[in-house]
Design a protein that fits this description.
The chain has about 600 residues and is α+β, with helices and mostly antiparallel strands. It folds into five domains: about 90 residues, GIY-YIG endonuclease; about 140 residues, no CATH class; about 120 residues, Nucleotidyltransferase, domain 5 (2-Layer Sandwich); about 160 residues, Nucleotidyltransferase, domain 5 (2-Layer Sandwich); about 50 residues, 5' to 3' exonuclease, C-terminal subdomain (DNA polymerase, domain 1, Orthogonal Bundle), CATH 1.10.150. It is about 45% helix and about 20% strand.
Amino acid sequence: MPIHDLKEQISRLPEQPGVYLYYNAQGETIYVGKARSLRDRTRSYLGAYGSSPKTNALLDEVAGLEVIVTDSVVEALALENNLIKQRSPKFNILLRDDKNYPYLQLTTSEAFPRVLVARSVERDGNVYAGPFLPAKFARRTMSLTHKVFGIRSCNEVITGQRQRACLEYDIKRCLAPCVETICSPEQYAVAVADTRLFLEGRNDELADQLQIRMMAAAADERFEEAAHLRDAMRTVQTLQERQQKMASAELGDRDVFGLKLGPKGAVVQVFLVRGGRVIERVEFVTDAKEDGETESEVVEAAIQQFYFDQAPPPEIHIPVELAEQELLEDWLARKAGRKVRLVMPQRGDKKGLMELALRNAALAYRTRFDANATANFEALEVLQAALRLPKLPRRIDCFDISTIHGSETVASMVVCEEGRMKPGEYRKFKIGQRFQDDFAAMEQVVRRRYARVLENGGPFPDLIVIDGGKGQLNAAYAALETVGLSNLVAVGLAKKEELVFTRDSVEPLALDRHGSALHLLQRIRDEAHRFALTFHRQSRTKRDLRSELDVIPGIGVRRRKTLLTSFGSLSGVRRATREELASVVGDRTADAVIAYFAANP
């Protein structure tokens, strides 16, 4: 067995805490674990064959071992979590989050930084804050940085040579670094430093600095500047008081973890309770790749992932006892800077909320892993393999253009998540007159959609489907490059031949005509076509009514409605006699209607 080839290496390992990493023959990390004693923990694998299918598969694939020694088990836990995040080893429990919560990015890598909504934290030299729960708090906080500190929101390349400031400066939402005579680089750097303190939550330090600068400005009789600093200080102090209240254990701040583990996977529901009220729900899911995972292991993995980049509340309620409970509490306490307790509630309201979380997890499990859901996941897996996608296309956006001879061109976008259509996220687009050909229309719609998605910090699709061939697909990629999202994957699905076009291949891909992957793409494409066609008909109807009746002198909304109600349709109005029209809208308007249709037969 491959693991026994490592027996001599294991015997030489230290009896110290640390992290061990197993590799396969290709040099890929397949498992990361922590240990109180590296030698004892890794030695236990030598006789572990047969304990579970997962362990058997791991031991059959192991070809190499590395260890990292740490000073404590808590440090080993933190390092293990970081390595799992970075390397995604196949035999570790990796839960996926149903939601992408946004971060705020202070672009300190730019000469004149901005605050942007970001999808995730990157190691790019910029400052990140978050995640923000609920997501709307991210945009509110970003707006405060404009209003309170004057951080710019534009995309301009700042040189300081602009002739005059824009409207944002006039309404006091930007310091106008684009005009050097108004705001020097040094002044803007002070605002950036204040913003950084604000985003990092160092509000007490920021309030003190604002007060010192306010007093200095008042002493120098710069009263307008002093008033602005006073307002900023008051805003920061108000937010500071609110944050302190939200962090108070007396008001019942806690997170509640509910779990449903079954043969097809696991669902973890997390209820965020602040001030005694549930303010948010987060869901984690894992598909069953192997048997043998326990409830304790899944909950431990969920806790480590959930609090990887956010501070925990004073209490976390869990449904099962954890094997490494004390270790996790120590790790959480270090992240929070205070004591954190993992509790199994036994009675009262706390137990009731735990039971509610468990029921929701069970419901989510049934919904996700029923027969239809299983078929959808199989289709997504086939699609991932056929298109060589880096990950399962759980969210698919699909675009379609609808027009007749370039008239009343409109577009639709539909969304499919986990193989299910999401009508609440469908979008309609009206196309400007100068974008009436299919390629230009597709470019405009994709650009508009993902400029907004980028601004809001998500949701980002795993796959974009374009109704059309290579031309429409190239137009879509041109739009994605314009907004800086060329890393997203798009394909074109041509009608009739049902061929799939990709960016990296000259020849189209022919999927199995009877396969689930093509059927899924067709279902999504047909829904986009239906939605676009319905919108086009509505737009055409409004155009027809507007052009034929609204331009007639004397006919407004009320008389138009009266005519259509009386004669049934536009054709009925056209066929009506003067006497019939006069009995409904009067002689003068009847004459105007007769004259109009005589001039426009």
